[in-house]
Prior knowledge:
Elements: E1 6-7, E2 12-13, H1 17-26, E3 42-45, E4 49-53, E5 57-62, E6 65-68, E7 71-76, H2 80-95, E8 103-108, E9 111-115, E10 118-129, H3 132-138, E11 179-185, E12 188-189, H4 199-210, H5 215-236, E13 239-250, E14 256-259, E15 268-272, H6 273-282, H7 292-302, H8 310-317, H9 328-349, H10 361-371
Antiparallel strand pairs: 1-2, 3-4, 4-5, 5-9, 6-7, 8-9, 10-11, 10-12, 10-13, 13-14, 13-15
Helix pairs in contact: 1-9, 2-9, 7-8
Amino acid sequence: MLGILIDYVDECLKYTSAKEIEIQRAIPNTLRQTNFVMAGYMLRYGKVRDIYSSKKDMVLVATDRISTFDYKWPIAIPFKGDILTKISVSQFNQVEDIVDNHMICYPDPNVMVVKKCKPLPIEVILRGYIAGSGWRAYIREPFAKKKSKLIKAEKRWEYGNFFECYGIDLDSGLKENQKLDQVYITPTTKGKKDMPLWDHEADQIIADASGNKNLWDEIKQTSLKLFERGQEIAARQGLILADTKYEFGINSAGDLVLIDEIHTQDSSRFWIASEYKERFECGSKQIGLDKEASRQFIIEKLGRNKGIKEKDIHKALGYNKKDGSFPDSTTNHIVNTSLRYIATYERLLGKDFKIPEYSKIEDRITSNLKSIGLEIT
């Protein structure tokens, strides 16, 4: 299995040269976007997935796109969509006793066919450790000094300790990446920009969307059970699931359904369990196998973590819009990110990731979708 050695001084992961070479070769052939024509299906684009919807079901194509700070990057990560799909399929199968999920079948490494549900307009974030955006918020000036009740949702990320939005009174003096005294649920809106919500706001939004005044409570209890299961799965594989995000929908009967993805690098924060205690005690960064390194790459290039726009992402990456080129530092980050996603796959699933044929991904998807009876051109 792929060994893990991360040097946080120069943000460089060191792996076997063979995989690095394959990743570099795959960069020009990543799956950036699809435009299939399928009889009876309408296409729209999400941040990472291309979504083909019919009256009865949806075809979700996981591309290699990556987004940070709610903006898509102009470059993609080799094998990312393949890995996200395989992890989600595995994790959906391991939590189906807790809540129904939307997966019908998995005809291609980048594709899931899923049930048509009404998506609920909230992302449910669970935090077991103080890290990432939670840490960045915690160390800012408290909301209380800024009349938090008057701060509009779209400004809450900018105004300090958003934990106060949720009635969470964290102890002072916490350290970055410290385990919290309990798991906290911090919901956000779901859209182009994700904004923190007070609990009563989330309750009302869910009630309005579903017609069920008790559904928000059910969502919170279900999410806690999913997170507990996810932490157990991760622990068996030598990982810590520090935080994660769930999305839900309701079916035609009004029953709760888990949708989107589960316990992937895009939706979760994973650390190496055996390294956690020593690194935490000496104040070192945790060995992360998720998307946080890409957020930090942008933050360090820009020298700030607030007010980041799409043009700032392009600037940090050194992306040349005219010819699509970018500097070696960005190429190195692309390779390292792909290796990080591969490492998480191998840890969680307990098996090697086989580098797929990457020159004709769309042709493969077309063939596999036709094999399950879809009319596609």
